[in-house]
Amino acid sequence: MTSSVKAILDLKGRDVITAGANTTVAEAAAILSKKKIGAIVVVGMENRISGMFTERDLVHAIAKRGKEGLDQPLSQVMTSKVYRCHEETTVNELMELMTSRRFRHVPVESNGKLAGIISIGDVVKSRIAEVEREAEDIKAYIAG
């Protein structure tokens, strides 16, 4: 049985680091560093997803504008076309999305609002646990 995004969130929690669109790149970089994370979900009114700011976006902002890029608001440098998943999304579907789109973080949306975030590490951990369960089940079946 393939795990779902809901199962991952139930284990890891639903806390998500967010920022507003007017947060500066420098402020967001400090948050990434302090929290030891690779992405921040940019939210608007009512906790609705308006973008993602990732380490890649940080690199692009500095490459394009130098140190002045640090003063830009996230709204100017964030990824605004955000692919989302839902709690019903399977781990296999999420792996396919993350691989084909080259994403390392995908926000989870429920009723149009942010409900969590899944990283590639979460997906790998879930998949390894699933494979280990399957192996144990096969061993138990063979052992009789």
Automatic annotation (TrEMBL):
Which keywords are on file for this protein? Answer: CBS domain
SUPFAM superfamilies in alphabetical order: CBS-domain pair
Transmembrane residues, as ranges?
none
Superkingdom classification of source: Bacteria
Please verify whether the record's keywords include Ribosomal protein.
Answer: no
Q: What residues does the CBS domain cover?
A: 12-68, 78-133
Tell me if Phosphoprotein is a UniProt keyword of this record: no
| InterPro entries cross-referenced by the UniProt entry | CBS_dom (IPR000644), CBS_dom_sf (IPR046342), CBSX3_CBS_dom (IPR044725), Diverse_CBS-Domain (IPR051257)
Pfam families, per this entry? CBS (PF00571)
PANTHER family attached here?
Answer: CBS DOMAIN-CONTAINING PROTEIN, CBS DOMAIN-CONTAINING PROTEIN CBSX3, MITOCHONDRIAL
Protein name listed in UniProt? CBS domain-containing protein
Task: Tell me what organism the protein belongs to.
Answer: Rhizobium croatiense
